């Protein structure tokens, strides 16, 4: 029986139909770039200090010295959460005493910001932080806001795969677009932080569901050669375009409610795409809806000015694919055998730890020195060459090696930041951007890699579940940024170490480069990655010898993963990891002291 790619090969690789699907699905991702990172400006925290009531009877000298000062980056700034006790300084002012000359300010009693805060408007006119005073004792709500958004993304990742596998790619794609746009609009009318965050959770659910389903739909419609371009230069680059437009909007619209309104408008413009984007023929075939699938292929041939066969899907082949509909799939099918379970567990780790690095670096841009709008733009801009590099690497090199390579590069660069003196801020920013370049490249490749590993029946579910695991990392990421308040290099040490670790794990994946997409779970079980793990651990498998090609593969594995050579490699790797951990421990101890 011919596979789908062979049956539809007459359509060509890059005709008008493929270009239309490519650009329309990519364009539908632009609003995701807005909503995914909008929290950087919606929840921005400007400089602030305790408010002193205008009714307080204070001289100008005491009013100017009513808030203690502290050193920050070599300059004196007002403390954010403390002021001198108002009752005391009013008495001193009434007695005609001068601060610093007659009264020792260091010995003066302090109190909290009982009358609220005054926020600087140099960067933001208003944010949810200034609106609801999410500072000092309430500052824990700011990272929680971001984490709750990613909780919604987590739930959306879990639900979107199963819903689109059951109800179709197209219906769920546009339903999640409506959820993302509609609830973003409702956020404008939030009356408190609780209402804003509940709506933000729902926006997160729609945001990731739209992204994942659009990716899967394009992967299943487009041909093998275009598939890589779509998943890198298409989906990912258009996400980066939306991300780059975000600081542009935020620069000119500095009120959070008006900014949110402006960011919801592009979602409305995606409504007409319903009449141009078709359902996935692969999914229709898996549901035995062969006539609908053939109708889509016939229309595609007409758009490409190609004469299609009278019958694209032969009736005999349709009967052979009949069991495909009867085979119900659930999330537990991703763990059906030891081979599939091993691949799934490693995929979950790969997505989660890569996500920690990507989102922590993205959310940390306001904390970098310089203009936050420009830093955010550079953080988005660096993603474009990262996606281009991912595309070029995926075209010619094995998946697991290139993913491991860029992860090693990104993690190593982040670990170097701890060696940069505090005065060389520009160098730290440059290394952070290079680190994001490597991690972003790896992130772009994960969608292709995961989609190629799993068969059509569970492909969308697999991408959804593994993407769900990445959201666990994104939920944690805001607190990596939060650690920077205690030690400026600690977030980079943690991110760099985790990135290098997952780069090592990636080397144990099976290779999918140059293989036809599997259609059934049985075809997936033929992936040889599990045998490689068994060979490394010294175990054997019952089906280790089936065909001459597999015998050769087994001999190759045994040759390279046994004997003194492998023992020396393991011993060297173990010693190297121990030395790295010991070095990081001594450095942290030095920083704390």
UniProtKB/TrEMBL annotation:
CDD domains: MFS_SLC22A4_5_OCTN1_2. It is found in: Apical cell membrane; Basal cell membrane; Basolateral cell membrane. It holds the Pfam family Sugar_tr. The chain crosses the membrane at residues 20-43, 171-189, 195-217, 229-253, 259-277, 340-360, 372-394, 401-420, 426-449, 461-483, 489-509. It is a multi-pass membrane protein. Its main location: membrane. SUPFAM superfamilies: MFS general substrate transporter. Residues 88-514 form the Major facilitator superfamily (MFS) profile domain. Keywords: ATP-binding, Cell membrane, Glycoprotein, Ion transport, Membrane, Nucleotide-binding, Sodium, Sodium transport, Symport, Transmembrane, Transmembrane helix, Transport. GO terms for biological process: carnitine transport; sodium ion transport. It comes from the Eukaryota. Belongs to the major facilitator (TC 2.A.1) superfamily. Organic cation transporter (TC 2.A.1.19) family. Interacts with PDZK1. This is Major facilitator superfamily (MFS) profile domain-containing protein. It comes from Muntiacus reevesi.
